[in-house]
Amino acid sequence: MYRLRVILLKEWRESLRNKMVLFGVIFLPIILVGMSVYMIALGEGANDPVAQIIVFNTSLMYFLILPAIIPLAIAVYSIVGEKDQATLEPLLATPISDLELFLGKALASVIPAVVVNWVSFGAFLGITRLLVGAVPLQTLTLPWLASIFGLSPLLALFSVGVTMLVSSRASDARAAYQFSSFAILPGLVPLIIYSSQKTLVDLKLVALEGGVLLVASAVVLYFAIRVFRREQILTRWK
Amino acid sequence: MIVTNDLTRRFGDLVAVDSLNLKVERGEIFGFLGPNGAGKTTTVRMLAALIAPTSGEATVAGLRLGVSNREIRQKVGVLTETPGLYRRLSAWDNLLFFARLHRVPSPEERVERYLKMFELWDRRDAPAGGYSKGMRQKLAIARALLHEPEILFLDEPTASLDPEAAKVVRDLIETLQTKERTIFLCTHNLDEADRLCDRVALFNQRLITVGEPQRLREEMYGRRTVIHLADPRPGIEDALDLPFVKSVERLENKLVIGLDDPERENPLLVSRLVELGAQIQFVNELRVSLEDLYLDMIGGNDVPA
Prior knowledge:
The complex is a heterodimer. By secondary structure, chain A is mostly helical. Helices cover about 85% and strands about 0% of the residues of chain A.
């Protein structure tokens, strides 16, 4: 646990000095919170209930896209950055275990993604209350909250697993970032379907998406852990 | 300190290290010499418990490879070919990170001591990416030493440095040798190996030879004394009838004479040459460079008869 914490702190310290990572962690949430608030304001003014629901669903979708996107930059730079700086070998020459290194890298991306998403959601509620007057009842339902608090960590895990797999084969951070962005799309498809629903998101949909993400994350993380072995890193990684 | 027994590593069909048998003693600086692609880095990676051998076995710091890998990594320090520093982090943060990974007691104090020892204390808060090559290499060596390892693996420590920085690093390596610390130095800088190493191994996928540099030279070429004459005196080499003289070769005004024990035989040799009328200007020992030995054994020179 101690070495895991050491890795986590180092990753965050490095991320704080990386503009690309900071953009993904700070500016992207600000933009999406702004868009969500705008959507809610738009929905409140709509006369057609179906249009209103679609707008509210789209607003929710932003908070499910964020936890999938935020870890991309952190995870890509965490791995491609190590390759670029040739720091992997000195790191692997320490008594750290393969699993500690993997978990350290993975959690360094997952934790900020989930925390930033929840904070963004809180900010969204606060700003909506200030600007629109009140948060529409249709948005503070159990399925919404279950989506944001239950699905976010799973989305972040899935995204990190995919990014780590992609980054292990990439030597260029931008290419890894772009490829990872495409590779996580299957995890986001059900969310895109949400936003086109003419009914509000219900618990059954959330549970289904949760189940799919759980299985997908387990598969992706299984392969990522296999790739994250000392021997593999030193002899197979590009 | 390091004992290997038929240590072998293959990558598919490629044999990178073939049946390496080696014994490195505690406290010595051991040079591991070979051309690029000889398998030096693969050997270091195996001995530092970073990759597994395909076959064979080894003990490192008294621990068996493959059984106590984590403990081995705690007892060895590795300087990789490139310094491998976190460029955005300061020297202080770089070292503190590794000190904590090694669970060094009072890591802050240890980092301070090493930064001061390596004269990096004044630049401790500057990002490592802004350091000169020499400073980066010093920082990387400090990182490899932080947990005070029993064995220090140095892989081409001066390879990419300018002569001034290389000298700083070489001087530093000399100061690192203690009775308790073994230094395993991979290099193809033969002058460096000659100056620093107690023993060297010539290696090119297989171990070619191992020994003290001077002894290897003597075994390969014998010992030779060079006599510089003021005038050529033709035929004097034929008149040199001393029983201990193994060979005589004339090179213009010089005689190159093969001997077994020059310390004892040189005075007799000089007396005899003076008796024969030679006017001797200088007497010195012919030193064959480790480079010649290396090229002869690895390939590239004609092997002397």
